[in-house]
Automatic annotation (TrEMBL):
Organism whose genome encodes this protein: Pontibacter fetidus
Superkingdom in the source lineage: Bacteria
Pfam family, one: Ferritin_2
UniProt cross-references to Gene3D superfamilies, sorted A to Z: 1.20.1260.10
Protein name: Ferritin-like domain-containing protein
Length: 266
């Protein structure tokens, strides 16, 4: 049995096979520490374990993250679609034009995520039914409430994609696509913030984000001033206030935190 010939054959259909197996190279090295006969007997089982981890669990994790992201994109697309259909809610002109473009971006995100999931032999989740008035009853009649939710959704999207990036490192193509969506969500968030006369970045745990209590979970942990192994970056030098320290770094949200936020609208 030629292990490397097997991998070369797999490489013909999966050019990233070496990246998938690189972190598991010790599994192959370990075979050299036992007798040749025993090693050859162990090879089929070792390969089965290695490839199951590389293509089984990894793919399942990627699909889980993609469907997680799809639910967020469904929420955003649905939100903007309903808002644009609400007569008199969004002023004509630049404001409406911006929201229309953002809605189309979110629609494109939905389609690319569904297509990617299907290409990995997964099943995209069905679009949930959202109730945006559950905790914000005037969201589609009060322009400021609408913008508040728009900011909260975009900020959630940015932090959610960041929180799941590590779970996509087994698939370079999917990770790249997720990062491309992540940066656009950040641009959306900054634009909506400017429409609300806010700073383009998050400062603290929502204190300066101009949002009501119901939206505060979106900003949990953003007051963090510990970064890169440094316990308190405000001590790095003059001018590094808590405001600068928290605004200079964006924090990820866990899947559980995002699920709790989304549940406010289900």
């Amino acid at each position: 049995m030629n292990i490397f010939k097997i991998i070369e054959d797999i490489e013909k259909v999966d050019p990233e096979v070496y990246n998938r197996l690189d972190s598991r190279r010790n599994a192959f090295k370990g075979l050299g520490t036992i007798g040749k006969k025993a090693a050859m007997a162990a090879v089929p089982f070792a390969l089965a374990s290695v490839f199951q981890k590389a293509y089984g669990q990894g793919n399942n994790t990627v699909l889980e993250v993609l469907n997680f992201a799809l639910k967020l994109e469904y929420l955003e697309r649905n939100f903007y679609t309903q808002a644009l259909a609400s007569s008199g809610l969004i002023p004509e002109g630049a404001a409406r034009g911006a929201i229309q473009k953002i809605q189309m971006h979110e629609a494109a995100h939905v389609e690319i995520l569904k297509t990617t999931i299907q290409s990995l032999n997964g099943t995209p989740i069905s679009e949930p039914t959202f109730n945006f008035g559950k905790n914000f009853p005037d969201w589609n009649t009060n322009y400021q409430t609408f913008l508040t939710l728009a900011q909260a959704f975009e900020d959630t999207g940015v932090r959610a994609y960041k929180g799941q990036a590590a779970n996509l490192i087994s698939n370079d193509a999917v990770l790249t696509a997720a990062l491309q969506i992540h940066s656009v969500e950040a641009r959306h968030a900054a634009h909506i913030r400017r429409m609300r006369n806010n700073q383009g970045w998050i400062v603290g745990a929502g204190a300066n984000s101009n949002v009501p209590a119901g939206a505060q979970p979106v900003y949990a942990g953003e007051e963090n001033v510990a970064q890169g192994g440094i316990n308190d970056i405000t001590k790095l030098g003059a001018g590094y206030s808590a405001e600068i320290a928290s605004g200079a770094f964006d924090e990820p949200l866990t899947k559980e935190q995002v699920a709790a936020i989304v549940s406010l609208f289900e």
